[in-house]
Q: What sequence folds into this?
């Protein structure tokens, strides 16, 4: 397997956008009707629809009585997981919690001598639903990354949905991670039907105020469809990594990092931008060598064939320009002086600096959230954070004296907009003066 090789000065600025654009959820509108039909069915038929879809798509027979994971199932999960792995989950939780605690905002007030008080009140969202995917892999890291910032924010109730196996059981590692993070309830349902259940509620699954968590194209489209009825984190596309490297980079490390992203799924994107022709050839050889001993070779080869690329640029300025155009989910800077490039990076979900800061570090243990904007949305979206689980209310309190200093301005402003009732609400307070 050799990645596409592009010399930057022989291609247009839009070539990479064209390479990646069909990975976006918006490119899969043929699934929209199916998703909308599922949502409507769940809204009307509740638990019955959820259970029918679970049997159809997951092969599991469940009913309203077995839809929720029991304490016995959670206790059993702990007996099936190696104690060392439980310890690692706890260590990751501590590191992730410590990072997100620094994001927490406080309410504030500001007053002046004339008697005005203005401020901002921070309030956590009441009920959050966390979607955890199943299928191709088990993602306890996703459980931690979605639940911890909600807990730090002070969310009162956190419910989780995840697809069961054919026996109607949830993966034990997922259950252990959820319990360690303090989830309140877990339901055995996946896909668009899970998003519908969280958005509108069923007899068993309570309605939530916000839905977070990654999923397949059906989950992404369902989240998009219910947005407005509830809040969502984002409509995430497939994962991606962009590596900027110079002649000092270790080809073995760079290849390993590209492969680690490619194994996510066939739509994952792995791109290297470098100014070193020597590195280009060395990375190509390492990709071939390392792929031979990896377990997900079919997925890796498909991902690299469709959405992998190596771009040779003339200098680091061109590399940074392309990176900011792409706005990658994960950006690795493997250069002699990575911190020298950092101020020039404008758009990236997460930035990994140096040879010993590989993307999987961020996936599991570093501390920052691994739920990141994809498909160029890092130009206007941020990583999942405590901010996603709070609401801000403006505080306004004026004395008569303070209002009088703005009386004429407000009246004139309102009358300019021909909103005479607005103007009147100010005038009546001073009509006896």
A:
């Amino acid at each position: 397997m050799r990645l596409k090789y592009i010399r930057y000065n022989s291609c247009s600025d839009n070539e990479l956008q064209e390479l990646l654009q069909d990975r976006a959820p918006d490119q899969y509108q043929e699934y929209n009707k199916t998703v909308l039909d599922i949502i409507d069915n769940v809204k009307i038929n509740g638990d019955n629809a959820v259970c029918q879809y679970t049997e159809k798509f997951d092969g599991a027979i469940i009913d309203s009585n077995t839809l929720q994971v029991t304490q016995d199932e959670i206790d059993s999960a702990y007996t099936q997981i190696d104690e060392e792995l439980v310890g690692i989950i706890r260590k990751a939780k501590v590191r992730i919690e410590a990072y997100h605690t620094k994001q927490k905002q406080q309410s504030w007030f500001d007053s002046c001598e004339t008697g005005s008080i203005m401020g901002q009140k921070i309030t956590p969202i009441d009920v959050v639903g966390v979607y955890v995917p199943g299928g191709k892999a088990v993602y306890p890291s996703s459980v931690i990354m979605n639940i911890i910032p909600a807990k730090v924010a002070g969310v009162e109730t956190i419910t989780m949905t995840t697809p069961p196996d054919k026996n109607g059981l949830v993966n034990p590692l997922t259950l252990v991670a959820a319990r360690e993070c303090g989830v309140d309830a877990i339901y055995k349902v996946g896909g668009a039907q899970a998003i519908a259940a969280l958005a509108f509620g069923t007899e068993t699954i309570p309605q939530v105020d916000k839905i977070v968590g990654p999923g397949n194209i059906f989950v992404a489209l369902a989240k998009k469809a219910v947005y407005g009825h509830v809040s969502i984190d984002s409509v995430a596309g497939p994962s991606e990594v962009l590596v900027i490297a110079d002649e000092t980079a270790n080809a073995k490390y760079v290849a390993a990092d590209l492969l680690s992203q490619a194994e996510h799924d066939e739509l994952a994107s792995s791109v290297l931008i470098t100014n070193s022709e020597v590195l280009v050839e060395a990375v190509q050889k390492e990709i071939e060598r390392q792929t031979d001993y990896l377990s997900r070779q079919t997925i890796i080869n498909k991902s690299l064939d469709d959405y992998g690329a190596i771009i040779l640029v003339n200098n680091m300025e061109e590399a940074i320009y392309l990176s900011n155009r792409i706005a990658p989910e994960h950006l690795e800077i493997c250069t002699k002086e990575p911190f020298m490039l950092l101020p020039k990076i404008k758009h990236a979900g997460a930035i990994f600096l140096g040879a010993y800061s590989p993307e999987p570090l961020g996936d599991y243990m570093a501390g920052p959230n691994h739920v990141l904007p994809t498909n160029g949305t890092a130009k206007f979206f941020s990583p999942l954070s405590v901010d996603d689980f709070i609401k801000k209310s403006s505080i306004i309190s004026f004395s008569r004296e303070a209002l009088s200093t703005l009386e004429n301005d407000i009246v004139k402003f309102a009358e300019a907009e021909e909103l005479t009732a607005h103007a009147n609400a100010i005038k009546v307070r001073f009509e006896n003066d």
Remarks:
- The longest strand covers residues 116-124.
- Residues 30 and 301 are 26 Å apart (CA to CA).
